[in-house]
Design brief:
By secondary structure, this protein is of the alpha/beta class. The chain has one domain. Helix content is 34%, strand content 14%. The chain contains seven helices and seven strands, in the order βαβββββαααβααα. Strands 1-2-7 form a three-stranded parallel beta sheet, with no helix packed on it. The radius of gyration is 16 Å and the shape is globular.
């Protein structure tokens, strides 16, 4: 199965990791803006919140750049802003207090390439979910393959009393709200 690189991917992306086959992350495709490659959606006090990593477009040629070469822009304080959004949104969730130290260091260190930052977060999520998928990056362009069917199952969300259940948010929503039980919902 071939998946796109993703910033704190949605739950449906992680469902694909349960397949009993190797997972390839497509690193040779051209970067596509406004996608999960540099954007995730979390639940916030005001409803769904899109967090977007700013991209340095100075290395793009004719508006194109392979994912493996996409650089993160250093002209904003996006990491602090994203971490603050996660704290604000999940501070009252059942597992944020216990798991925040697993994610904070990733947001505090400097990153050059988007694919490396995404990979570090995916690895951390897999570790917390006790998933050991065989993930590697593609050696050449092969394209993205359709994923497994995803049927959302409601689970506890901090702000569901305000805006109801929001399906297929970032995996971090599931992890901070359900902890180790997250794997049961993925299965």
């Amino acid at each position: 199965m071939i998946l796109p690189s993703a910033y704190l991917p949605p739950i449906s992306w992680f469902v694909n990791l349960l397949a009993d086959e190797p997972i390839l992350i497509e690193q040779h495709e051209n970067y596509q803006k406004q996608t999960i490659r540099n954007r995730c959606t979390i639940d916030s006090p005001n409803g769904p919140l899109h967090l977007t990593i700013p991209i340095d477009r100075s290395t793009f040629t004719e508006g194109k750049c392979p994912m493996r070469d996409v650089r993160i822009s250093s002209h904003s304080d996006w990491q602090r802003q994203h971490w603050y959004a996660l704290e604000t949104s999940y501070f009252n969730s059942p597992f944020f207090e216990y798991l925040q130290d697993d994610f904070r260091p990733i947001f505090e260190q400097p990153w050059t390439f988007l694919i490396d930052f995404n990979e570090a977060l995916i690895h951390q999520c897999c570790q917390l979910l006790d998933l050991q998928p065989h993930i590697r990056q593609t050696d050449a362009y092969t394209g993205i393959t359709p994923g497994r069917e995803f049927i959302p199952h409601p689970y506890y969300q901090v702000f569901s009393h305000k805006h109801g259940f929001l399906p297929d948010l970032s995996i971090i929503d599931l992890i901070f709200n359900m902890g180790k039980e997250s794997i049961l919902l993925l299965k």
